[in-house]
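Sample entry (265 residues):
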Amino acid sequence: MSPREGDPPPASRAIVNPMDLTGRTILVTGGSSGIGRGTAIRLSELGARVIIAGRNPQRLQETLSSLAGDGHLIQEFDLTQVDDIPEWLTKLAAGAGPLDGIVHCAGIAPLKPLRILTVKVIRETMNINVEAAFMLARGFRRNNVCRSGGSLVLISSVAALRGNSGQSAYAASKGAIISLTKTLAVELTSDHLRVNCVVPAFVETPMYEAFKRSQPEDQHSQTVSRHPLGVGKPVDVANAIAFLLSDAARWITGESLVVDGGYLA
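Predicted structure, serialized as tokens:
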């Protein structure tokens, strides 16, 4: 006799959540706001112990107070000091235990037309968006920093896949992330690490609000209209990140998961 709708599942069948992160320790950079904060919150709700990193202690504390569960940590660190990242991760793991995952959400998105774009801006953008990703990967693969089966998730952008005026430095950095993801995925397989990236479109974050203020109202309306499902929220990206960190994605590496509300469709 088949079960009726609403009946409890048979006692012999366990309910499995393949995205459960209980018992795992995950570092989230840029965890003081935006996608980073949304990701830290979602990971905590899935059972992870979250270490949130950023430069603003007050905003880090605000994120910490929003997390579910306990045992979470905050780390003040300036990721622009890229040479120091591997050793920072080593010290972090020595105190907090090995990491099961890293999510690199920290980044900047300068809106600079080519006519006023400077080498300084290009270098600043590449520094935090790309160079920090390199060094996070380098530090993550160190002995005693990561657990076998760990997962590194980087953040790209649809700007890497569709041209927008004034975003050349940002788009170039996010295109580099897609290429870096594929290469690291192959190289770090021998370390039993997976590497993927998420490719979001416009999401309601402080970065998006700054972009919105830089546009005339009609131009911004056009930007919104390009998203058939509307502009996203941090949790929309956080859910994709959580998936890539979890066992549900254990057979996925080197991929770029587009989360864009239909922007590229």
